[in-house]
Amino acid sequence: MEFHALGVHEIAAGVRAKKFTALDVFNECLDRTIACESKLSALITVTADSGRAQAREVDAGIARGEEMGLLAGVPVILKDNMCTHGIRTTAGSRILGYWSPPYDATVWRLLSSEGAVLLGKANMDEFAMGNTTGTSAFGPTANPWDLSRVPGGSSGGSAASVAAAYTPLALGSDTGGSIRQPASYCGIYGLKPTYGLVSRYGLIAYGSSLDQIGPFTRDLEDMALAMQILAHHDLKDSTSVAKGNIDFSLPMGDKNGNVNLKGKRIALVKDFQDFTLDPPIADAMRRVLRVMEEGGAEISEVSLPTVARYAVACYYAIAASEAHTNLARYDGVRYGLMVNTATSLKDMFEQVRSQGFGSEVKSRIIAGTCLTEPVRSEEYYVAATRVRTLIAAEFGKAFEKVDAILQPVTPSLPEKIGESDEDAMKGYESDLYTLPVNMAGLPGLSFCTGYARDSGPVPGFPSEPTSGLPVGLQLVGPRWSDKNLLDIAFELQKVLGAPQIARGGI
Predict the structure, then answer these.
(1) Rounded to whole angstroms, how far apart are CA atoms 91 and 98?
(2) Residues labelled as active-site residues
């Protein structure tokens, strides 16, 4: 049996029913990982030995007749900015070296308590700063659909590993699109939950008021199952919110074969209409809108002028300022990389940070340092936080009239590896569709609409798998509407189909 092709709920049910063992599942998924990894480089650390030990514990518990959790024997992958007790955690940076945390992130504690088995830690842009997974100190990750292209970032390793079926579930973090954009590029589902719904305790911080952990899956029922476990109030995270009224265990959508979106109010953003989209993205927007209309949804427009004009600039002012503060702790004294050639304490700090950080991280630290200087703080950082309040209010007003917004994740398909190095502004331009969601703390779900034919225009979106790249869009909703976004996507999946498994270079 090809266990790597199964979903989360199928593996857990099979292990609990003794149809197969957790160890058999883990070993087969590990074989798949090893076969693809030389092409993709999606992982920084493979946890083969500890993963097998966890799988054996699950099997032993079943043999003793114990009641097993919702994720019994399910292999999972974590982005390498989530702390795992005794397992190297790097955040994609040299400066953390071989640091092994003395504790687990809450998200891993929740998953493992339900019987999940850790297969590895995923590659990522250094400290989550990037959108290609190309700024990792451990080298770039390749897109599993086209090895010459980027998988997106910063959670590119997590997305690529789920798309290539290393595991059916991985976690990433989203500070400005780092779950939704790689999910779109890799052709799977990626949910950036409402800020405060999932604990960030044990997440290595980039921008603390923007960071949010969320899941990647190839199946919406698996996504709901993961969120049922992860949406958990955590006293260790002061931003965690107790929201007991989101029940992800409820069945999704209408189980009959017809798309039923009656009563759903979906909007397009009027202020985004003049921006250029590549043909496959524009075609996908038209097709999904048609499916929604035929399913009974009410389509309208909302206006977000402040978002369109100011969100990107204000985001970078806030993110860089918070990064400057969060990364001040890496000084060679308490974490990771150390040097023995320093002649003074100041020299040690300079050597460690010069050798440990990559150029993208350094540039954002410098920008944050400038923006938070006393003479500039009021003009830039404080002003950006005030505009952020306006942005949240603008979204709030729009969601008084609609249930969700349909919009692109990016204006184009994934670029060639190294292409963004030649034009750094290209990555920033594509941020318009993702960053505002983090600014307002909203949920956003990236979903696959189909596959472009050889990366060119899509004549009618073939229903059969092709050699083309996946084409993703996203749904954005008001705070705490995460389950509603899954319900809408479930209805769309009846026409669009479920994500396919990528070849992964083999």
Answers:
(1) 11
(2) 79, 154, 178
